[in-house]
Amino acid sequence: MNDPFKNRTPSLAGPATDILPITPSDGTDLAAVCVSLYVETGGSLSIVTQGGQTRSVSVGDRTILPVGVRRVRATGTTASGIHGFVVA
Description:
By secondary structure, this protein is mostly beta strands.
């Protein structure tokens, strides 16, 4: 199989190298800082950004939120089907 990523250096300019399912947690950071989030079912998101700031945003169904995220908090999050794009 031809692998177009084989000789490519991972870059924040994309594409992501993996997508991880996210279970919101008030006390645990994600396994990796995500470069963006994908939300299947809209609602509120309470996140801790890559820079350490807690933010709350409302998103619609099938939204891509292009912000570095280290944690999706359970408190204040009603959106579901949350996935994180990562660059390894």
